[in-house]
């Protein structure tokens, strides 16, 4: 679904990604584990298009999107749930969801079906997005992303500043949605529990490169994981 | 009693005029954080568009309410493509560039149409209020401005286009990641702001007299109103023009028109000292 080859990117002259090679297969949930500053968020920003690639290639479903502007990548199916959620603060919850539909030119009808998967949001529809708790915002950001009917979702550190009960909720929601429709997920995290709950394949990132693949079954091995996760 | 009514009407007229001449600038500033210093010239172009159209036999109302906004919107699209688009996020550079544009437009219009005072007389005659007479056209302006503000509110609040505009205004990067092209939103916004400026220019033409330099008389007031109002387009415009318009008229009424203008400026300075982010930077946060 997403194939990345030799991707180099960063902020201005500061290079953060030093040649990422990554293949996310259609329909799989892939996790990337790494400490702060290793390039997790930068990788997702480069895939979304917020950061330009100075070398390398990003393919989405076989199509080269390396030079496409952000909104065209979104229209080709990349959904993004950024770090810090980036909810539109003064728009109501419903309007945040409507933005997800309107941005793709989709009708608002799909919102009802998505709310079925996010029952907590139903009673909050009139509230301004900025008034929600961190966990509620995370659910809203995910729901808003789904309103645009993406083929792949990029999820950036959803556990940051969120109570554990909501984390479990997010894991369950994503598995539930996956039973209904095909979904490809690329998740970056430093929370081991969360990444294990969601990922079939787990890679580690170090100094802007994919370091190695971890066997999800062996994540309990502390010596192995301490090196990569913020335990 | 009649006098009180007249003074009240004068205050409302003054508020409506301020809101009218500021709205286009406010839309562009609120949405794009771009201060368009050629705003005064957009007013001037609107006024000339209306005059030229009526000169060619177009109905006065059609010229003012349709020809003027449409022609200035076209100018706005061109200006956005050629200048504004290249300077997003660089507020000072944009101000400098649009100031240059303002001088160029004044020069261009002077060259083509001459530096003479033209205009047309206000339609609708006058209405008697007790022993005084009030221009019917001024009353029309008050009503029209109220309707215009209501229309802008409805479009922003209740249409899909308005939703996209509000979302993009709050977080352009996130809007883009959802699939919206911010540059298209900005282009449309700038055209709409230009159209509102052109409309305002045509509507004040009968009261103001039309010369190529007429914009300079309005840009300062519009600028002060928008900055005093702050980021919220409608709440800012309405609250700032309400306050400044009232101060201006009361000052003129109690002293002289010149002191009225001084009072307006003084009020704006005091307000900005107390509320550096404008009225809506402190109150009515998050409103439109």
List unreliable stretches of 5+ residues of chain A: none
Number of strands of chain B: 2
Structural class of chain B: mainly alpha
In spatial order, strands of the major sheet of chain B run: 1-2
Let me know the largest β-sheet of chain B: 2 strands, antiparallel
CATH class of chain A: Alpha Beta
Number of domains of chain A: 1
Strand order of the largest sheet of chain A: 6-7-8-3-9-10
Distance between the termini of chain A: 31 Å
CATH superfamily of chain A: P-loop containing nucleotide triphosphate hydrolases
Rg of chain A over CA atoms, rounded to whole Å, is 17 Å
Low-pLDDT runs of chain B? none
Principal-axes shape call of chain A: globular
* Quaternary assembly: heterodimer
* Run of helices and strands of chain A: EEEHEEHEHHHHEHEHEEH
The CATH topology of chain A corresponds to Rossmann fold
Number of strands of chain A: 10
CATH architecture of chain A: 3-Layer(aba) Sandwich
Strand content of chain B: under 5%
- What is the averaged pLDDT score of chain A? 88
Write the layout of secondary structure elements.
The complex is a heterodimer of chains A (231) and B (288).
Chain A: E1 2-11, E2 14-24, E3 29-33, H1 40-48, E4 53-60, E5 63-64, H2 70-75, E6 78-81, H3 93-102, H4 110-117, H5 119-122, H6 134-147, E7 152-156, H7 164-180, E8 184-189, H8 192-198, E9 201-206, E10 209-214, H9 222-225
Parallel strand pairs in A: 3-8, 3-9, 6-7, 7-8
Antiparallel strand pairs in A: 1-2, 1-4, 4-5, 9-10
Chain B: H1 2-32, H2 39-55, H3 60-82, H4 91-113, E1 126-129, E2 132-135, H5 136-158, H6 160-170, H7 172-178, H8 182-208, H9 214-229, H10 233-254, H11 257-274, H12 279-282
Helix pairs in contact in B: 1-5, 1-8, 1-9, 1-10, 2-3, 2-4, 2-8, 2-9, 3-8, 5-6, 6-7, 9-10, 9-11, 10-11
Describe the protein's architecture and organization.
The complex is a heterodimer of chains A (about 230) and B (about 290). Chain A is of the alpha/beta class and about 230 residues long. Chain A has one domain (about 1-220): P-loop containing nucleotide triphosphate hydrolases (Rossmann fold, 3-Layer(aba) Sandwich). Helix content of chain A is about 35%, strand content about 25%. Chain A is built from nine helices and ten strands. Chain A has helices at about 40-50, 70-75, 95-100, 110-115, 120, 135-145, 165-180, 190-200, 220-225; strands spanning about 1-10, 15-25, 30-35, 55-60, 65, 80, 150-155, 185-190, 200-205, 210-215. In chain A, the strands form two sheets. Chain A has a six-stranded mixed sheet, sandwiched between helices. In chain A, strands 2-1-4-5 form a four-stranded antiparallel sheet, covered by helices on one side. In chain A, α3 (about 95-100) runs parallel beside α6 (about 135-145). Chain A is globular. Chain A starts with a strand and ends in a 6-residue tail after the last helix. The model of chain A has no long low-confidence stretch (mean pLDDT about 90). By secondary structure, chain B is an all-alpha fold. Chain B has one domain (about 1-215). Chain B has twelve helices and two strands. Chain B has helices spanning about 1-30, 40-55, 60-80, 90-115, 135-160, 160-170, 170-180, 180-210, 215-230, 235-255, 255-275, 280; strands at about 125-130, 130-135. Chain B has a two-stranded antiparallel sheet. Chain B starts with a helix and ends in a 6-residue tail after the last helix. The interface of A and B includes residues 48, 70, 100 and 105 of A.
């Amino acid at each position: 679904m997403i194939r990345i080859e030799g991707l180099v990117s960063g902020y201005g002259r500061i290079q953060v990604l030093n040649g990422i090679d990554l293949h996310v297969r259609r329909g799989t949930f892939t996790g990337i584990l790494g400490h702060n500053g290793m390039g997790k968020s930068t990788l997702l920003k480069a895939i979304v298009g917020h950061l330009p690639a100075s070398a390398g290639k990003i393919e989405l479903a076989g199509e080269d999107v390396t030079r496409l502007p952000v909104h065209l990548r979104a229209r080709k199916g990349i959904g993004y749930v950024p770090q810090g959620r980036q909810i539109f603060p003064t728009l109501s919850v419903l309007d945040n969801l409507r933005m997800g539909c309107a941005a793709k030119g989709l009708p608002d009808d799909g919102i009802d079906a998505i709310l079925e998967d996010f029952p907590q949001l139903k009673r909050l529809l009139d509230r301004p997005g900025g008034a929600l708790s961190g966990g509620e915002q995370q659910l809203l950001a995910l729901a808003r992303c789904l309103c645009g009917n993406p083929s792949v979702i990029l999820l950036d550190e959803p556990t940051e500043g969120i109570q554990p009960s909501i984390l479990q909720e997010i894991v369950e929601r994503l598995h539930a949605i996956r039973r209904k429709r095909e979904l490809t997920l690329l998740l970056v995290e430093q929370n081991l529990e969360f990444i294990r709950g969601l990922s079939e394949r787990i890679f580690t990132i170090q100094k802007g490169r994919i370091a190695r693949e971890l066997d999800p079954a062996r994540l309990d091995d502390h010596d192995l994981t301490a090196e990569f996760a913020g335990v | 009693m009649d006098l009180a009514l007249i003074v009240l009407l004068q205050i409302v007229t003054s508020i409506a005029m301020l809101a009218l001449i500021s709205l286009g600038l406010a839309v562009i500033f609120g949405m794009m954080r771009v201060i368009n210093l050629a705003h005064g010239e957009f007013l001037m172009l609107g006024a000339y568009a209306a005059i030229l159209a009526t000169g060619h036999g177009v109905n006065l109302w059609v010229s003012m309410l349709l020809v003027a906004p449409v022609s200035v919107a076209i100018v706005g699209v061109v200006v956005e493509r050629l200048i504004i688009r290249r300077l997003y996020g660089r507020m000072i550079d944009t101000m400098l560039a649009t100031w240059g544009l303002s001088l160029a437009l004044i020069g261009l219009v002077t060259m083509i149409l001459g530096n003479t005072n033209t205009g047309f007389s206000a339609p609708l005659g006058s209405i008697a209020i007790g022993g005084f007479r009030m221009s019917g056209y001024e009353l029309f302006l008050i009503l029209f401005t109220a309707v215009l503000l209501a229309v802008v509110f409805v479009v922003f609040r209740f249409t899909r286009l308005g939703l996209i505009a509000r979302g993009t205004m709050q977080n352009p990067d996130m809007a883009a990641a959802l699939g919206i092209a911010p540059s298209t939103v900005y282009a449309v916004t700038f055209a709409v702001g230009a159209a509102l400026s052109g409309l305002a220019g045509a509507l004040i033409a009968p009261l103001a007299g039309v010369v190529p330099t007429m914009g300079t008389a309005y840009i300062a007031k519009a600028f002060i109103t928008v900055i005093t109002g702050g980021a919220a387009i409608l709440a800012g415009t309405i609250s700032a023009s309400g306050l400044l318009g009232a101060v201006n008229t009361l000052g003129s009424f109690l002293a002289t028109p010149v002191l009225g203008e001084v009072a307006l400026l003084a009020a704006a300075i005091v307000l900005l000292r107390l509320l550096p982010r404008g009225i809506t930077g402190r109150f009515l946060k998050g409103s439109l």
